UniProtKB/TrEMBL annotation:
Phylogenetic classification of the source organism: Bacteria, Bacillati, Actinomycetota, Actinomycetes, Pseudonocardiales
Renumbered residue ranges of the record's region Disordered: 1-20
Species this chain originates from: Kutzneria kofuensis
Keyword list, A-Z: Glutamine amidotransferase
Name by which UniProt lists this protein: Anthranilate/para-aminobenzoate synthase component II
One Pfam family here: GATase
Amino acid sequence: MATTSSSPAPAPATPREHSSPKIAALRGIVRDVLESGTPLLAICLGHQVLSSLLGFSLIRKPQPYQGMQRSIDFFGRQERVGFYSTFVAVGDVPGLSISSDPDTGEVHALRAPGFASTQFHPESVLTEHGIDILAELLTGLL
């Protein structure tokens, strides 16, 4: 299984900078993994890159979520999760299971055969049931 993630620190480049060597490399890796059929779990920057490749728009938040805990609807249930992001995906792509904020349209998580992703960090101490969330996403991929 392939995984993509970023550290809680701000990303190495913005996910919209497709010409940035780091972002271009990450886009290539995510594209190759998707095409290979290898299960993929993408977190934070990886989620943004995956979302962009799937056709979502990426927008810069007016105020970054650096170390912010929020309660979200995670595929039909409330979860308190930790965010560390400046950019978020927005929009809708048919055929995907999407967890998003009903007011802002910010995509919190995606699921589809072969991949899952989260904008928030399930491994963060700010995510109350992070291990359960990771187990659920990984089990769904395998």
